[in-house]
């Protein structure tokens, strides 16, 4: 994904750690 275009943490079915890393898809 392009981290500059959209925050993957806002997508459905995506989980992020408190540090902002995507931990699951």
TrEMBL record:
This is Leucine-rich repeat-containing N-terminal plant-type domain-containing protein.
């Amino acid at each position: 994904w392009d981290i500059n275009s959209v925050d993957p943490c806002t997508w459905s079915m995506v989980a992020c750690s408190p540090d902002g890393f995507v931990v699951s898809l």
